Structure formats: C-alpha cells, structure tokens
Amino acid sequence: MLLDATLAYLHFAAILAVAGFLVAEAMLLRGDLGARDVGALSRADVWYFNAAGLVSIKPTITFIRWRRAARAAAGYSVPDAEVRGARRLVLVELHLLALLPLAAVLMARGIGH
Length: 113
Prior knowledge:
Distance between the termini: 22 Å
Shape: elongated
Strand content: under 5%
Helix content: over 70%
Number of strands: 0
C-alpha cells in the first residue's frame, strides 16, 4: 500500500516537473531570443528531456541548433518566425500534458482498460 502511494506521488511529481519545464520553455520563447536566452532555453530543455523522455524531439533539435549558432556568434539572435514556431510546439505539448492526469485517473478506474 505504501509502495503504491509512493509511486503515485512520484508519478504526479513527474507530471508537475514536466509542466514546470515546459512553462519555463514557453516563457523563454517570448520576444527576442538572444545568445544568453538560448543557453537558458537549452538547459531547461535538457531537464525537460530527462523528465519526459523522447517526447519533444523537434524542439530539442531546434534548441541545439540555436545553441550552436549562439556559440559561434556572440550577437546571435533567433529569427522571430523560428521562435514563434518553437513556442507553438511547446504550448501544444503543455496543453497535451494536461490530459495525462485524466488518462491516469481513467486507467485507475478501469476505463479504457
């Protein structure tokens, strides 16, 4: 019984961690994105990747590309269109994440099993 409760708690804590990292990414993807912001975005994405697994491949690859470009040119600024596209993907992931606890609740009650 204690093991089940601990595992359920860890599951919900992981969901909250993933949500937190996605919110951090979404906040960093607002407005102009300079070299310093790209570094912070990449660090947040590494933590998100570790918490979520291989859920967010496209944004991760984009952030790696931006980080390399920022390292190559100190004055690098990400094009606005690319920032908007990445932000859109991160927000879609964040909204889909809201369905994860619903799926867990339904599965725990035998619905869809």
